[in-house]
Amino acid sequence: QVQLVESGGGLVQAGGSLRLSCAASGRTLSSYDMGWFRQAPGKEREFVAAITWSGGKSVFADSVKGRFTISRDNAKNTVYLQMNSLKPEDTAVYYCAAAQSMSRVPVVAGSRYNYWGQGTQVTVSS
Fold first, then answer.
1. Band (3; pLDDT cuts 50, 70, 90)
2. 64 Rama sector, left if φ>0, alpha if ψ -120 to 50, beta otherwise
3. 3-class secondary structure, 29
């Protein structure tokens, strides 16, 4: 069992930055792909970014490409989402998730993720 706890959300003006963290406990994350998803009010959950278990490859949704980066520190059992040039449309609850995988390509489909955090609110004001 893996427990995930997100932190770092908050209120920021458009154009600002936030760094989300996702700390894991229960098991080491070294054999899990890690992903970030978000859900805005009245909308379905959507994929944001994912990184392979090794940290060797990451993928991003088109809407955040070039603005967000994902990284991981397996020694600290933590994954990060650096969000720059934030826009009001980035406002959502952000969730981290873990998918057991040893692939060279990050898991993108939410249905393949085994564990989820409780989410952290990100609000971007215009």
1. very high
2. alpha
3. helix
